[in-house]
Design a protein that fits this description.
The protein is of the alpha+beta class. The chain has 5 helices and 13 strands. A 6-stranded mixed beta sheet has the order 3-4-7-6-8-12. The protein has a 4-stranded antiparallel beta sheet with strand order 1-2-13-5, with no helix packed on it. It has a 3-stranded antiparallel beta sheet with strand order 9-11-10.
Length: 224
Amino acid sequence: MTCIQPNWPAPTTVKAYTTLRDTWHEKHALISLLQLPTEPVWLHQIHSNRVIPAIPEHKEHDADASFTDQAKHICIVTTADCLPLLMCNKQGSMVAAIHAGWRGLSAGIIEATLDQLQQRGEDMLVWLGPAIGPEKFEVGQDVYDAFVSQHPPSATAFTLKDKDQWLANLYELAKIRLKLQGISHIYGGNFCTYTQKELFYSYRRDKGKTGRMASLIWIASDYK
């Protein structure tokens, strides 16, 4: 197995994958590996809430999400503990990829992406790709405060480990924000990059000396 295909009811014209560890090491190799129709629109990820259209002119621009309604324009993010989200509408006419670490989530990267898509929440499908699991993502009081100060019910995504130390559930934090936007069709979210060493890279487990998984999505052909 070289990649994961989301288990979700997306239209057949929507193609989506997440690579596994050691699947690819060079960007151009990904094109042949997955038989991509074009070069993906790679982002320079900065843990922000910046969202841009996936067009060739935006390649390597500072952003943490991209979207498109154009066939064969590939949205892509890379992660190694942060949460990749892939989303599309039920019609298959709009797709997006989001890089969401805790900073991006608390800054509103999900909300900013949905603002750009201008789709009804009930029409959206979201797949949560491999991220660090809730038993391994230890964070400080600052992370807890960043979420709970904005939205007190987010406290349910944290478990107190020690004084001022928490275990955070990235998947749950993302689900809370998605549901606040009216999105209930949420899939995936059952991975742990830290513990599933044979499958995934983990920035924390490998102390920063690690590769990345790529999560990508595109519309394969005209949906009309």
